[in-house]
Amino acid sequence: MSHIGQPKKYQIENGLRVILDPMPSLHSATVSLWVDGSHYPAYAPSPYPYGVAHFLEHLLFKESQKMTSFRQVQDIEASGGQMNAMTDKETTCYYAQVLSEEVDTALNILAHMAQPPQFTQDDITLERQVITHEIRTGQNATDTRILETLIQTLWQPHPLSQPVIGTEMSISAMTPAMLHHYHQTVYTPNHMILSIAGRFNPETILTQVQSAFDGLPASSSAKSNKSKPNLSPPYTPCRMHLYPEDPQATLCLLSKGIEADSPQRFALAVLDMLLGGGISSRLFKNLRQEKGLVYSIHTFELLYRYTGLFGVFAQTHPDQLNTVYPLILDTLEALTASGPTADELERAKRKISGTLRLNLESTRYRASRNARTEIYQETQPDIKTILQQIQAVSVQEIRALCQQLLIPENLSCGYTGSVSLHQPEAVQKS
Fold it and tell me: Fewest CB atoms within 10 A around its CB: which of 117, 123, 345, 389?
């Protein structure tokens, strides 16, 4: 692994943290600006409507198109690069994948997005139409619909339960003053991380960053996220039959998970892989390969600052739903009782390690991974250490995690299709 460089962390004069991950053999780089602030309205009483972080993300792209350097965006696209953004429940990320000679251009564009915006009521009205359409059409993604509906129910009344995109009602409440105030409050150097991975000039990059971002005023405090009290939402198991008109049955099971900085995150990654990570996983073999009962089945993990979720998604014909559901529960129970076999455990570890090493060839993956590691763990461990921590996960740790997460009576369940789901007898008794 000696060919994989170690990312380095710096801080410029105004407090902006900078993570540099050089990959000198490439011809490109990903320049990303992360705002660790979507959690602001999610974890505390807030004057902002739900969806404000995502709404602002849209508006700042309109800002980039109005600015005098819009030609720079065109130049990036003309040379094969791209710019985009994403917002989740706790962060917003703006990123540019560019040729190495365009790194300085990307820095200037992202720095402009961090400056106080100049959008108008007309901008907001137009973008409200776009996001309202996004909300309505997004309802066609069945797995997303089920997951969001379950989260809204099991985490109520916590603000984190609300969808990132907001609702039509919350979007209608956005005003210029509100959005400007949110930007002023959250888009500050102590809430932001600049993460760059790929080919750049290591001798001049910090000077370029300082020049691009020195217009941002220094933050009054270095950073405040870790000093906040535990604000984990409650977890109330629920059961929901959704969209009975759907022609196929989609089943989602959710359990309370772990936090993003939990020491158990390596064991959870192994559990996720061996239980539902591909064709060699236990769920896939039991329900797809051996019985042919599902179109697809996989597990997933969501890790946040103060909480998390672990889940299973399965798609099947409605007539098979009441066969599939107890078989999934049986699989979870068997893994909890006996743990994985030595072969399963080793295969899952090998797949995680191989996937990680392959992903490290992607500048976007590395820029994202480095930023998230800084946000949640405030450190940049080397890859060798991470691979050692994955390899160290034991059968006993997997069993203990199963016993913690996969308690049948604590599982939330959401499903679609025309057939009602029967509660298995073992679960009813518990």
Answer: 389
